[in-house]
Give the backbone structure.
Amino acid sequence: MIKKFSKRAINIPKAIVMDTDDTLYPYDIAHKSAIEKVINKSVKDFKVSRKDFLNSFKQAKFETKKRLSGTASSHSRLLYFQRTIELLGMGTRIFSTLDLEQTYWREFLNNAKLFDGVDLFLQTVKSHGIKTANITDLTAQIQFRKMIFFNIDEYFDYVVTSEESGHDKPHISAFELMLEKLNLDPLDIWVIGDGAETDIIGAKESFDIITFQKINKKNIDPKNKPDFAFNNYQDLIKFFKTLVGRS
């Protein structure tokens, strides 16, 4: 079921822009498995307790995010693990840092799975000649790897990462760059994302783009409602096809 929260008229878009994490796939399942793999490896290799590793990791993540707030690097697992090892009193171990980062992302991707219907939705809109773009935080390399892993890289005409734009969403720079690449009027675009603070506010405050929120564990923010909300892609496909049928 598609829930409507605005009175705005809606037409078939000329482009659809989608977020990545928790919009294309559930993030937490993959993350929990990946960080558990890293913890077990670290406890074994570094001879530290699980508690000490987790405390150091938590502190490392906090420091990195505070220092690099609003940038793609603030999400870097490589930096998190580098600082974690340092906080454990072992200095900067380059090989170990790289090893943990690769362990994390390998396990992450092995446990990441697209939401049902994502690929069919992309196929459907592309079959109607609609441009597609991906606008996402984090570094380009790992977000590109996710697209290839999910086998949906060919479905997107353009990608904008916060590494490329210089700022995480909801900063206007990411949306400006996306519009520059698409070369379209904002009124002809839909933005689909899961986060009220990043995707919905970013799209609305930047260019008042029509927004769709993917509802997962987060509820609708009453102060920052999207134009539309949906729980699954099957409903979004039906909504889109109905719109096409009326045109």
